[in-house]
Amino acid sequence: MTLLHLSDNQTKGKVYLLGAGPGDVDLLTVKAWRLLKSADVVLYDALVSEDILALIPSNAEKIKVGKRAGKHSAAQSEINRLLVTKAYTRSKVIRLKGGDPFIFGRGGEELQALIEAEIDFEVVPGITAASGASAYAGIPLTHRDFVRSVTFITGHCQKQGQPVDWHYYSQADNTLVIYMGIINAATIQQGLLAAGRAADTPVAIISKASTPQQRSFIGKLSELDVLAQAPELQMPALIMIGEVVSLSNELNWFEQSASAAGNGAAALAQLQEN
C-alpha cells in the first residue's frame, strides 16, 4: 500500500484504536469514554451506536468509514490513508470500531499502516459482539454441563477461493459464534449438517445486541436459514450455535426485563385512560 508522503519534520498526532463495544453506551470502558470526549477527529464504523457517537465533541471532525455487506462506504486502503493523513494534521485521532478492534475488526492491518508511516498509536479494547450478545441474551459462551470450548469465526465462508472445512466446527461440546454470517446462513447450516452437527442443535441469532432494539431468534440448526430471513431481523446480528443456547429462555434477563417494562407501561396507560 502506498501512503501519502508528508514532511518528516511535520508534527504528528497520535491515533487511538478504540473498541466501542456491542452498542450499549454504558458498556464503553472509562478510557474509551475519556478519549472520545476529547477527540479532534473520529473515523467511525457503521456498527457504532448513535448513543456512543453522541459523546463525540461537536467541534470534532466525524468521518463515517464503516463497511456493511454490499454497502461499503470506504475501502480499507482509503481508511488507512485517512488515518495517516489525519494524524499529520490533528493531535488526537480516534479510530472507533464496533465491538473489539482485534476481533474481526482489521485493527491489526490499520496499525501496520501507522507503523509504516511512523505514527504513534494506542489500542483500547472493547467488549466484542460475542460477549455482549452472550451476556444480554442469557446464553453463556461456556458452561461446564454443556460445552468445553468456544470458537469465534467469520461468516465469510470462503478464504482465497477455498471452502470452509466445517468438520473443525462440528463438535457437539463446542459453542460456535459466527460474526457476519447472516447472508451465508444457509451455507453455514448446510456445511455444519454435512459435517455431522446434529440438526436439533440449538441456535440463536441475536439482533442489535445490548440495545433497546435487541431481539433473539431461537430455533434449531435445521431452521437457521429460515431464522436468518425473518423480516424483523435487524443488523448487526450474529449467530450462536450450541447446547448453551437452550439456557436463553431461563437466563435472558434483558429482553424479559424490557418486555415486563413494556407491559407495565401499557397497563399504566390503560389505568389512566379508565
TrEMBL record:
<dbReference type="InterPro" id="IPR003043">
    <property type="entry name" value="Uropor_MeTrfase_CS"/>
</dbReference>
<dbReference type="InterPro" id="IPR035996">
    <property type="entry name" value="4pyrrol_Methylase_sf"/>
</dbReference>
<protein>
    <recommendedName>
        <fullName>uroporphyrinogen-III C-methyltransferase</fullName>
        <ecNumber>2.1.1.107</ecNumber>
    </recommendedName>
</protein>
<keyword id="KW-0808">Transferase</keyword>
<comment type="similarity">
    <text>Belongs to the precorrin methyltransferase family.</text>
</comment>
<dbReference type="InterPro" id="IPR014777">
    <property type="entry name" value="4pyrrole_Mease_sub1"/>
</dbReference>
<comment type="pathway">
    <text>Porphyrin-containing compound metabolism; siroheme biosynthesis; precorrin-2 from uroporphyrinogen III: step 1/1.</text>
</comment>
<dbReference type="InterPro" id="IPR050161">
    <property type="entry name" value="Siro_Cobalamin_biosynth"/>
</dbReference>
<comment type="pathway">
    <text>Cofactor biosynthesis; adenosylcobalamin biosynthesis.</text>
</comment>
<dbReference type="GO" id="GO:0004851">
    <property type="term" value="F:uroporphyrin-III C-methyltransferase activity"/>
</dbReference>
<keyword id="KW-0489">Methyltransferase</keyword>
<dbReference type="InterPro" id="IPR006366">
    <property type="entry name" value="CobA/CysG_C"/>
</dbReference>
<dbReference type="Pfam" id="PF00590">
    <property type="entry name" value="TP_methylase"/>
</dbReference>
<dbReference type="GO" id="GO:0032259">
    <property type="term" value="P:methylation"/>
</dbReference>
<dbReference type="InterPro" id="IPR014776">
    <property type="entry name" value="4pyrrole_Mease_sub2"/>
</dbReference>
<dbReference type="InterPro" id="IPR000878">
    <property type="entry name" value="4pyrrol_Mease"/>
</dbReference>
<feature type="domain" description="Tetrapyrrole methylase">
    <location>
        <begin position="14"/>
        <end position="225"/>
    </location>
</feature>
<keyword id="KW-0949">S-adenosyl-L-methionine</keyword>
<keyword id="KW-0627">Porphyrin biosynthesis</keyword>
